Amino acid sequence: MIILIAATAQNNALGKNNQLLWHLPNDFKHFKNLTSGHYIIMGRKTFETFPKPLPNRTHIIISRSQYQAPEGCITVNSLHEAIQKCPKDQDIYIIGGGQIYQQAINIANKIELTRVHHHFEADTFFPEIDPNKWQLIQEHYHPSDEKHAYSFTFQTYIKK
Fold this sequence. Notes:
By secondary structure, the protein is an alpha/beta fold. It is globular. The chain has 4 helices and 11 strands; from the N terminus they run βββαβαββαβαββββ.
């Protein structure tokens, strides 16, 4: 199954200047729980926002140029090639950025979205989720608190 996983603001904002716009520890835990042990596909700019490769995941990095990725990471030139590198019988997580999500939304089977209940100024956005193509099947609300400046909702969509 091809799964898009993202955290977006109410206006679909993902980030600005290759940086996340919020810090939500429970969202990081959610991301880790879902993606651990799986292949994760991302664009080069997304990968470069990490201080080092994420543990217990196989990284596939999409780059149009000859990108020298750290040992253990796989570099490819297209989303199609990235998907071909993944096992056929396992869930694959596409983790960004905006251009990669745009390319992948029509081939994905599922979306794991953290909807941050705030509007942000951004330069990178998640594509619109078309309600004619996607069905919301699960939601879990998390209020703001001392560790989370913004409330958010974990949402799961499946393709109709």
